[in-house]
Amino acid sequence: MKEQQQTDLVKPSPKKWQAKEKLAWLKKQTIKRSYQNDVLKKIAALAEDFTVEQYGELCYPPYHYPLYIVTTRDWDNNKPSILITGGVHGYETSGVHGALSFIEKHGLKYAEKFNIAVAPCISPWGYETINRWNANATDPNRSFYQSSPSLEASQLMEYVKKHDLNFMTHIDLHETTDTDNTEFRPALTARDGVEQELTDIPDGFYLVADSNNPKHDFQRAIIESVKKVTHIAPADANGKIIGESVSQDGVIHYDTKKLGLCNGFTDALYCTTTEVYPDSPHVTGAYCINAQVAAVTGGLDYLIKNNIV
């Protein structure tokens, strides 16, 4: 049982951050791993079987990051199109590598039924510094809306709009970590000067569905697929996960558009956000990556089995 209780609060600072405080925060951030070695090399290797296209770039001096999307070849508008996104929060490792693992191991098979687009690492600065925010102290996964303050969000949205892509399914790969309570919410409280509630971090996998378009059977199929790989997060004593009511085993709901979540910008009919818990004593990094892959394949298998494609 975790010691953290839902009633605990992070007290706000006297005022929210201005440019000076954001700069002070930025100066404390350091590079801890390599986007080039961990991600770009794997994307380059996919070019043999898939189309690899640069859709944008980020410049956070002295660092420069090209942004890539991997798509199946011979895009056919008569097929349903699928978007897989990872690394919207760069520090959520299995989201990035789960997206890459899916397209590498399963992309060609599912390309028989679907057009597939994979944006595996939307926030590479966040990946390298192991950060939820971008270098401007902005959360990309609260920024998927018109006139977004996040280039990570706006450049992906512009790519989709430019190519007039209509996705039937969008699966966004995320993690919930212990640092959400120990680092992120305290930082959020300091940045915005708004008191934040700390909720228990759930031990296990769960999904965040769109409250306006829940698609219960689709979510259930993903949970059943992931169960074969890792455990599903139980609800707490109040029937909730991270403070939200559970609609079925391992599923909660958010208003994705209202919150500016990546999962809400495509208007996909079948959508979900995965949440893996990498700090569990019952899993390894490989288990977490495999759980992300199982979530994607479980969702796509559901569409095929039910003749939705």
Structure in words:
This protein has helices at about 20-25, 35-45, 95-110, 125-130, 150-160, 180-190, 215-225, 285-305, and strands spanning about 10, 50-60, 65-70, 80-85, 115-120, 170-175, 195, 205-210, 240, 245, 250-255, 270-275. The chain is α/β, with parallel strands linked by helices. An 8-stranded mixed β-sheet has the order 2-3-5-4-6-12-8-11, sandwiched between helices. Strand 4, helix 3 (about 95-110) and strand 5 form a beta-alpha-beta unit. It is globular.
The stretches of 5 or more residues where confidence is low (pLDDT under 50) are: 1-7
What is the CATH C-level name? Alpha Beta
Gyration radius, in Å:
19 Å
What would you call the structural class? Answer: alpha/beta
CATH architectural label: 3-Layer(aba) Sandwich
User: What best-fitting shape do the alpha-carbon axes yield?
Assistant: globular
CATH superfamily: Zn peptidases
Determine the CATH topology.
Answer: Aminopeptidase
Number of strands: 12
Helix fraction, binned, reads 25-40%
Order of helices and strands: EHHEEEHEHHEHEEHEEEEH
Strand order of the largest sheet: 2-3-5-4-6-12-8-11
Largest sheet: 8 strands, mixed
How many structural units, i.e. domains? 1
Span between termini = 43 Å
List the total number of helices: 8
| Proportion in β-strands | 15-25%
| Average pLDDT over all residues | 94
